Amino acid sequence: MYEHLCGYDWGINHPITRKVFTVDPTICTVTPFGSNQTFTIDIAEVYAQFQTVPDQRKRRGVRYPLAVLLTIALCAKLAGYSQVRAMAEWAWDRRGEWAERFALPRARMPHPTTWSRVFGSAVAVATLEQVMAALVAPPPPTEEPSPASHQIALDGKALRGTIPAGSSQGVHLLSAYAVATGTVLAQEAVTTKENEIVAAPRLLRRLNLYGAIISGDAMFTQRSLSTQVVESGGHFCWIAKENQPTMFDDLKLLFSPRIIPVAKGFSPIPLDFVVVEQHEKGHGRREYRRLTSSSLLAGYSDWPYLAQAFQVVRITQVGRQISREERYGITSAPANVASAQRLMEVVRGHWQIENGLHYRRDVTLHEDASQVRMGQAPHVLAILNNTVCGLAARAGLTNLAALQRSMAAAFDRILFRV
Asked: What average pLDDT does this structure show over 277-292?
């Protein structure tokens, strides 16, 4: 038993009334089936973090403190109850235990509609993002990071369950994803009348780009965005396609195979192509990748801060089917900062935002199946989903579903003291 300080913020400008009460230890430690990695979460610590999120409801009529609801919601998602209705029913079945845990005056839990309404209007989204990012982020480095030492991937995701009938866009969030740690650093909402190109500068202004290399698909291959990244202390690594026709033609010409005749009495044109290769085999699939980098465009193209260009060739064989793909890219990182091998790592690492974040949110956390559209509730639920994925990544766990099954049993052991 230990003393825990509980604060209820019943309004934005109202003082916090604090009450000291005694609760049982709330540290959950599990080792999911098939893994040798342990996962630990302190519910009291999470609750303390949520208490810093302002409650935007009016004081009158508030029955459930916001920090309590956010804590229970995160626990429900960790236990595998991702949808709002499932979350509400899971909390209701344990209403007596949660009421005792948080010293609530009555052993009750909100109706599913109340959960949606609170998440839709009561949560300060910007503060919640900061709190959750701090919860899953690793300790800050003690030394200044070297250039291009850590990768931040940019990619957007539309929440399909929020698209109204007759419309083409619902809630669309652009994420900045730290590839090394598997955590979302920040999210920016893409409004109905804009696209990710417009939202990306706002998102990058919220981040510390020193020592970072920002990766993105062809949509982000924009001159203004490239300038912003470099002048903010980072480097860019973009994929180039036909949306930038001049650059794309230059890249195809640079990496096209050709024989250059050398006139008598003249030296051959100096070339600086560097090639790295990778071979992989597994699950009935063979894959060969080759990246070729060059700095020759740096003195020719007028693209801002361009230092290197590269070509990626991927050949895949599944059974008798063979496919070949070519892609081109540009980066502001010179060869002494980002070698060809490092560029290969960045190109491959960019897709971890799809496999390690978006896929888990869609498939394991059932985000696209959610029908919650009330206010900013989809954004709040997406932040909680990011937190679940980030906590799993911080623990080195790759099977989120197995973690949820273990956490479901662990929460019941704590709540019911079995």
From this structure: 92
- What's residue 374's pLDDT? 86
CA 315, chain centre distance (Å): 29
pLDDT at 260: 60
Range of the domain at 334: 150-258+269-357
Q: Where are the beta strands (DSSP E) in 43-118?
A: none
> Residues 128, 194: one domain?
no
Q: What is the DSSP string of 184-241?
A: EEEEEE--TT--HHHHHHHHHHTS--TTEEEEE-GGG--HHHHHHHHHTT-EEEEEE-
Q: Residue 346: which of 234, 224, 228, 227 has the closest Cα?
A: 234
Q: Of 307, 324, 357, which residue constitutes the final position of a domain? A: 357
pLDDT of residue 343: 97
Same domain, 134 and 158: no
With CA atoms as reference, report the closest residue to 331 among 321, 318, 346. Answer: 346
How is 286-341 classified by DSSP, letter by letter?
EEEEEEEEE-GGGGT--STT--EEEEEEEEEEETTEEEEEEEEEEESS-TTTS-HH
Distance CA 154, CA 156 (A): 7
Report yes or no on whether pTM surpasses 0.70: yes
Position 323 pLDDT exceeds 50: yes
* One domain for residues 247 and 287: yes
